[in-house]
Amino acid sequence: MLFGEIMRVALQSIQANLFRAILTMLGIIIGVGAVITMLAAGAGAQQRIDEQIAALGSNILSINASRFLMRGIARDQATLEVDDAFALAADATYIDAVVPEIQSRGQLKFGNNNTNVRITGTTSNYGEVFNYGLAAGRFFTEGEDEARQRVIVLGSDVPQDLEAEIDALVGSSLTVNSQPFLIVGVLESIGSGFGSRSPDDMAFVPLRTAEQRLFGREELENISARVRDGVQLERAMVDIERVLRREHKIMPGEPNDFAIIDRREFLDTQQEAQQTFTALLASIAGVSLLVGGIGIMNIMLVSVTERTREIGIRMALGATRGTILLQFLVESVTLCIFGGLLGVGLGAGAASLLSRFAGWETFVSPESIVLASVFSVGVGLFFGIWPARRAARLDPIEALRYE
Questions:
Q1: Disulfide check for 319: which of 211, 239, 314, 402 has CB 3.0–4.6 Å away?
Q2: Residue 175: CB atoms within 10 Å
Q3: Contact criterion met (CB below 8 Å) for 117 and 155
Q4: In the chain, domain spans
Q5: pLDDT of 93-134, one tens digit each?
Q6: Which residues contact 216 (CB under 8 A, 6 or more apart)?
């Protein structure tokens, strides 16, 4: 009964000064809303990184071309060629799929619209190795690659750039650097990919077509190698290094003119940076909660001063110091709880708007709601103790004399 009476009095006090209570809660509302929004943005980014790691697979290695240093002098020519990919496919013991990539910028023109995209010449197993689905059509075949046919697969963003519907594109022709190509497929949206690369804003043509009809060169930017199941990546790296050093005729003691990279390491680094950034943003947002708590403490101190005579009357009627202390603590925590609930709604709404209009991936997790709510209650308790103790320590006789 005592606690019920305290709650009733607390609610009546808040209702009697409703506008002031709303202004008092504003700091908590903004603070909790900011925490929820920042954690939602961080959780969304974390989910995206997890999806990228899953999409990359646990057994994909990337071999990148690099400048070859001979006695401290850098050679400018690229160091990976199409024959290197064929050698890996034929001789590497622990590799079951090899995907070479030759890239350059190119101008796509469809009707009266055109766009400049990165064009990748690759093999027919590209989509299968990287788990890229098709929104329409198909990927080009090995036979089309061997025949050097002019066929092309577009990333998911390219149709929009060309202001055309996917169904209208598949089966139609466009020009790539003024050469006609048949559109055979459009990829599903993948999102931001490894590093700054994303297949969404790229186009893909057969490797031999790119080599002999578009770019006129055999140098590769990258070779991706899928390691056989059950084989350690380190063993596969040694195997790749053995084949490529032989192909490049690199003598013992000389450095490699290529780099073998486990691409998950970059995403792990990105993941750590994202977690740190999210924690930083949440900490900054938490400052708003502290500011709100200070505001609540100030208002509660004012409330103690205004209700000094009321406190004296209650003490005269038998209220203990513990009851008075609990009374003001309940009022402080109640303000924070209401502010926290409104802040959760504000944060969830802001996260939804960021996702809808800014294109951010957000996810409001139950853990973030619980964390923000518990923190807001803690703020109410922490900043409510001093005003509550001040009220509880008032001398009843002096309180009754207070005007």
A1: 314
A2: 15
A3: yes
A4: 2-52+268-401, 67-256
A5: 899 999 999 999 999 999 889 999 999 999 999 988 888 889
A6: none
